[in-house]
Amino acid sequence: MSLEPAIEPAAPAAVGGERRDSRRARRLAVSLGAFLVTVALTFLGLLAITFFIGRVVPIDPVLAVVGDRAPQAVYERVREEMGIDRPLIVQFASYVGDVVQGDLGNSVSTQRPVVEDLARVFPATLEMATIGIIIGVLLGVPMGVWAASRQGSLLDQAIRVVGLLGYSVPAFWLGLVGLAVFYARLQWVSGPGRIDVYYDGLVPPVTGLMLVDSLLAGDTQVFMNAVQHLILPASILGFFSLAYIARMTRSFMLDQLNQEYVTTARVKGVSERAVIWRHAFRPILVPLITVIGLSYAGLLEGSVMIETVFSWPGIGNYLTNALLNADMNAVLGATLVIGAVFIGINKLSDVLYRVLDPRAR
Predict the structure, then answer these.
(1) Cα–Cα distances in Å, from 215 out to 117, 219, 221?
(2) 169 pLDDT more than 90
(3) Looking at residue 128, what is its pLDDT?
(4) What is the Cα–Cα distance from 248 to 141, expressed in whole angstroms?
(5) Which of 63, 62, 64 lies closest to 79 in space, CA to CA?
(6) What is the pLDDT of residue 3?
(7) Alpha-carbon distance 129 to 234, whole Å?
(8) Of 1, 157, 285, 327, which residue is the least packed, with the fewest Cβ within 10 Å?
(9) What is the pLDDT of residues 266-294, one digit of tens each?
(10) At a CB cut-off of 8 Å and minimum separation 6, what does 101 contact?
(11) Taking Cα atoms as reference points, which of 45, 46, 4 lies closest to residue 332?
C-alpha cells in the first residue's frame, strides 16, 4: 500500500475566487495606469500652453533682467544665457526637463527660485480659499435645497437674487465696500494684510497656514488676530462661491423633485423632509461634487482681485506683481501651479464619483 498522501483536486470555488481576484487586480492595474497616463498627458498639455503663451506675449524677459538701457552686447549675452535664442521646440524640451526636476527658474523680482516663492505664498491663498469654500458649501447647499423645495416662493426669489448678485457684483468693489463698512466704519474686523505687523514673525512657519501654525505654537493671540484678518476676504470669496453652489444645487434639486420616484414616495406618505434629503438630495451628490470642486479651484485661481484689495500675500498677489514686473518665470510658475490645482481637483472628483456612485466603478 502506498503511503504517499492523496492529492486532492482544488475546490472549484477556490479556483473561481482566485480567477476573480486576478481579474480584479488586472482591472485595477489597467485603471491605475490609464489614470496616470491621463494625468501625465494633461500636465504635459498644461506645460505646453503655459510655455507657448509665455513666449508669444509682448514681454521681453531679457529686458526685465538687463533693463532697457543695457548695451546690445549685454542684451545678446543674457539672451543666450537664458536660452531664448534657441528654437522654440528646444526651449520647450528644456523647460519640461527643468519642471520635472522641480526647477521653475529664478524670479527677477525677488532674486529667489520661483519654487521657493510659490511655497511661501501659496499657503496664504489656500487658507483663504479653503475657508471661503467651507462658507460657500455650508450656506449654498441648504439654500439651493430650500429654494428648490419652495419653488416660486418669496424664499426662492430671495435666494435667486443672492445668486444673481454673486454673479454680477465685481469682486474688487465688494472688497472695497467691505473694508469701508466693516473695517473703517464699524471696526468689526481687521484691515488689509494677513496679520498685524506687531505679531509678524512671532509664530514659526511650519505649514505656512497661519491659523494652523499659531495653534501649533499655542499662541491664541496670533490665532485670533489671523482670524480677524481672514474673516472678511474669506467671507467675500464664500459669497461668490455660495451664489454658484446655491444656483446649481437648486437646479439639480428641481430636476430630482420632478422625478416619478419622488411622487411615489409622497403618495406613500413619506415625510417631506425625508423626501427632500433622503430621496432627492442623495442622487445629486455626484454632480454637486463637481460643482464644489470647480468652485474651490476657481477660488484658488480667481482670488487675484481680493488679494490685491486686501494686500493678501498669496499667489494671486504674487502673480499680479510678476506681470507688472515682466517676471515671466514667476508668471509661468504661478500659472502652472494653478493649472495643476485644477487637474488635481478634477481627478479627486473622479475618485469621489466612484466612492459615492457604485455605477461608476
Answers:
(1) 24, 6, 10
(2) no
(3) 92
(4) 9
(5) 62
(6) 53
(7) 7
(8) 1
(9) 888 888 888 888 888 888 888 898 889 88
(10) none
(11) 46
Nearest to 234 by CA among 331, 333, 335, 138: 138
Short-list 150, 131, 94, 79, CA closest to 303: 131
The grid coordinates of residue 299 equal: 477660488
Q: How confident is the model at residue 11 (pLDDT cuts 50, 70, 90)?
A: low
Comparing CA positions, the residue from 243, 262, 51 lying closest to residue 165 is: 243
3-state secondary structure (DSSP) of residue 43: helix
Q: Distance (Å, rounded) from C-alpha 126 to C-alpha 134?
A: 12
77 class by beta-carbon count within 10 Å (0-12 exposed, 13-18 middle, 19+ buried): middle
Please report the pLDDT score of residue 58 as a whole number: 67
Element (H, E) at 153: none
pLDDT at 308 over 80: yes
Q: Which three cell numbers stand for residue 267?
A: 403618495
Domains of the chain: 19-100 (no CATH), 114-360 (1.10.3720.10)
Which sign, positive or negative, has the C-alpha torsion 182, 186, 189, 190? positive
CB-count exposure of residue 156 (10 Å: 0-12, 13-18, 19+): middle
